[in-house]
Amino acid sequence: MTQHTIPPVTPSPTIPPAPLRSRTGVTGLEPGWTVEDSVDLYNIRLWGKGFFDANSKGHVVVRPEKIPGTEIDLLEVVEGLRERGLSTPVLVHFSDLLQRRLLDMHDAFNTAIKENNYKGDYVGVFPVKVNQQRRVVEEIRQYGSPLGFGLEVGSKPELLAVLGMTSDSAERLIICNGFKEARYIEFTTLAAKLGRTIIPVIENLTELKLIVEMGEKFQIRPRIGVRVNLSTPGAGRWRHSSGAKAKFGLSYAEVLEVLEYLRARGMEDCLQLLHCHMGSQIHDIRQVNQGVNELARIYVQLVKLGAGMKYLDVGGGLGIDYDGSQTSFEFSTNYTLAEYAATVVYRAMSVCDEEGVPHPTIVTESGRAMVAQQSILIFDAIGANRPDRGAVPAQLPALKANEEELPRPLVELFDTYKSVTERRLIEQYHDACEARDEAGRLFSLGYLSLEHRALCDSIFWATCARIRDKCREVEEVPEELEDLESLLSDTYFCNLSIFQSLPDIWAIHQLFPIVPIHRLGEKPTRKATIADITCDSDGRIDRFVDDRDVKKFVELHDFAEGDRYYVGAFLVGAYQETLGDLHNLFGDTHVAHVKHDGTGQWWIDEIIEGDAVRDVLNYVHYDLNALQAQIRRECEKAVRLKQMTASESQSLVRLYESGINGYTYLEPESNIGN
Length: 674
Known about the structure:
TIM Barrel, Methane Monooxygenase Hydroxylase, Chain G, domain 1, single chain, 22 helices, 12-stranded mixed sheet, alpha/beta, 17% strand
């Protein structure tokens, strides 16, 4: 990816929004529809948590400080990027939102500590695996420094990156998780000798021996942590990542074995941190309460057995409310950040007070909660497949010379279409399905022409649309017809790769809020699923957030060929960038880091250009010089054979070379050949 640092340019002004129009006041651009209706439809304020809203122009806005009027218009950002030659898809990071989120977490725990008269401290630690992008980690280092936040690494490459980035802050806590060989342990030991506050967490007993050996070799008493497998069961989609059969961590017996091994060498004071993994995206606060209680019980027992315990690391798991319902749904949370902090602090304090043990420093590794909200993927719709697009004629076609009568299923479908009535919806739906099935059988046997088969399909879908419309008018929709909305939903083809930019949608059916970033003053008239531009049937989004439910479609606006229609996937800052793959050789998207000055003005602080075709071909070891040379030879041969003129051959060579240097995604015509 090509990186550009953009000096502060003349900021694009953000117009403070007028109050949103109410349903009973002045209407929006669509009669009877207002911006406020769209805000409710997409639940923007529920999952937005003060960071996202819509302005009076019908554009989605970002409020990094959660202050109305101090906001960034997403459509203006996209248009500003277009002026700089960068087309969608683009991932937009909001640095100030990230800073606000870190402050919110720090303030929530500080408030809980003060309210409970807790005697220990709090340290938030960011797991680099959640978002390994250099700019994001640097901002967490910068914004987290005055808050005392640290970093967590899970591999040797992450460790080396973090050691280099934190050379000016020896006091910053570095937690080292993951499997460790001798070289990894050597790095942590030498970093400790440099004066770093670094704690390798034991995942197995072999690592303990390596840590002790390296400490003896370099004459240093290391700080040591241990991860324990809790018996508290997990919950939600990642429930199997915790508990007795979790991938990482030691059993109770193995934890005691660690302490005895250290005691035998006079190093029991080196065991200073107790860590666990309660799960990812914990949606139920009761699981947090039970897990912290169990972890604290182990902690106080280790203290009484002589360990030099100082840190209680409750791991990650602090969830994001992706649908805004604030329930125990697996992609939501039935608690707030404040309640989470209060639960952790109170439960740790209660157990320690009961056992007469000093309060430890509480450590959290809540990476998802730190970075998810600061990133938005914006992409454009490029076309649509609409099942009901076929026109139904006013009357059936006349008989041809060789026809005695029109096919019976065609006549029956046409009669059903004309007679759809609220009193017979289920019966007429059955009639339409049977007629279409019969048309399919006749066509397979050669008794139905292609023209008649196509007309049967058009009439069938039009009939279903009429039945669906009638269902919208009745108080109770028959169960058999409830799925008609999904059956008749459009497919909107959009310029993105789900495998590259939203891999969790494909891999684990993650839900992200999907919202058009403009035209919210208009009523969305189409219900659609989203398909990407990869050649893979799994490259689609057909599950969408809804208040306490999952929808099979999202409401979108109709658009004509040539229109620019932008859609945003929100809360995508955790895991998506690094997990993405090169399916069909679609590479990383452009990334724009946006900042604001607190007065309603914003600017693009840094642009990292997405992968060009040359980048992804290099990733998979193609020789670009050889490819270009082969094209040139073929063009020269075509000129000799008079298949092309010399000018045409040179045009193809230039076009090929331009394509090699172009964006891997679909580009607007203005970018072609540049």
